[in-house]
Amino acid sequence: MITRRYVIRRIIYMAITFFVAITLVFLLPRLAPGNPVLIILLTKYGGIVKPQQLKILESELHISGTLWQQYVSFWISLLHGNFGPSFYYYPQSVSSLIITHIPWTFFLLGTSTIISIVLGVAVGSYSGWKRGYSDSFLQSFSIGLTAVPYFWLALIFQLVFAVLVVINGTHILPVAGAYGYFVTPGFNYQFVISLLKHSILPLATLVITSFPGFALLMRNTVVTVLDEDYVLQAKAKGLSLNTIRKSYVNKNAILPVATSVGLAFAGIVGGAFIVEEVFSYPGIGYLLYNAVTVYDYPLEEGIFLIIVIVTILANFAVDLLYAYLDPRVVLK
Amino acid sequence: MTNVRIDKERMEAVTSSRPTTRFKDFMSKLWKHKKGKAGLIILFGLVIFALIGHFAAPYNPLANNAPAFQPPSHAHLLGTDYIGQDILSWFMVGTGTSLVVGFTIAILSALIGVTVGVIAGYFGGKTDDVLMRAVDVLLVIPGFPLLVILQTFLPPTLETTVLILSILGWPFLARVIRSQTLTLKERQYVLASKLSGLSGMQIIFRDIIPMLIPIITINAIFIAVGGVVAQAGLAFFGLGDLRSVNWGTELYYFFNQDGIAYKAWWWLLPPGIGIIILGLGANFLSNGIFETTKPQKGG
Prior knowledge:
The structure holds 2 protein chains of 2 kinds. Chain A is mostly helical.
């Protein structure tokens, strides 16, 4: 059950979180030394510039006037969805850059999260139900995998598929980009195949490093649920083991896994960003990596704010979904 | 009078040899626990490895007088990198840096997390509300992008990275400590301390925090590993002090200096295996601590 009071309170918390993030993004560059306008001018125009141009740039970057005036104008443009111009890709705006890149990140994040949950739940449920030898093997295997850092695994995949396993001069799997050079984006067979092939290694990296967490949690809750009286009663009633497992154990054990998705998601975001860097996958993680290397501060700030909004909303959605799945949960 | 006497007894109980015998007790229990023992050995081994690297690495890790991209040989057991630095020496010295980074982050984070958690749990009310909302905000903001944005505008030194990671590392611990404190403060002996006139701070330091040490240690271990990985990830993204010799910068240079094109597997494997060994050791040790210090029911 979800009360209206709960929803309103959550919205207020989300607003506070967002307010903190925006204020941080506003203050940090202003505490750091150096004039951002000069950085743009030096990198882009070799430092030759007219005074009027300087004024226009300053107002576009909200660095004229008192700190308070800057803060207000910063907020006003943010509320208009305007994150200002990018330093490096100037005069392209940060918003337009993010809009063109974010679908790729959504694709990677969404697909890898769903596959990880499904795989984790399946493995964990099997492991907790079977117990014994296969259980302890799967458990140590999962613990071992959680210790593998995703950026290292991504590099291993690069090394193996880019240079070590090359048959007759062709790669088995593509190691960079989101689709091939010679396919035209659109809804055609070649594009979809190329898209899928390019996503295999990035997805594999993310899934291999994030599914064991779900598997371990699922395994532990299955073991706890098996001790419950209603499972004993179901057995006494003579229900088939398959029915017990599906309708009694898995259904109940999956709930704690659902609550963990929200927090795990924040971690998978970081993983996706670094994986995009390694595989030159054109999402906002790759964009952020490029922004870092060329000191494109507005772009970094815009990406940060967008990903904060996405994570907060995803968390909220997961909580609502949880209350919907489990009628015993009362969110008030 | 009685107040004073009880207080004295308590003082004696705390300041006598009890803590050290308790520690010895705990260590011997942990040593008998299979996983706890494995964890201790693995982590101790890593520390020894790092110490050898600090005092007696085969080469200066920054000396580049060997040919570049040499596969492992007798002279260079793990080969050389893009400018002919000895990778084994790099890895040994880097292990030390990464361990110190993780250890420092764990200590600082634990200090903040325990302070916030105990204060929120013990005093409750408005203080609790404000602190826990701050924790919620920090937990929900995705860590890696936040790290990137902070490190961008702060000085690129290893100290800054450690500080940022410590400031971001504590919220989960604070939440755990708060919920533990909530149950502990209802215990009989805490009530007895209250009746005997001890102040809130005295109770916190004598009755509550000592009971929380196992759970603090377990969480601190995971914060340490998380810190090492986060620092490595940040360095890999090109942020922080890239001249520092650690596991993260090793991977950064591998990726950015054509390690892949030269098929330099000997350069890529060590830091990843280092992180995996650290992660496994931490997991075993925390598992051992958890199982040997499980609270007995009714205590």
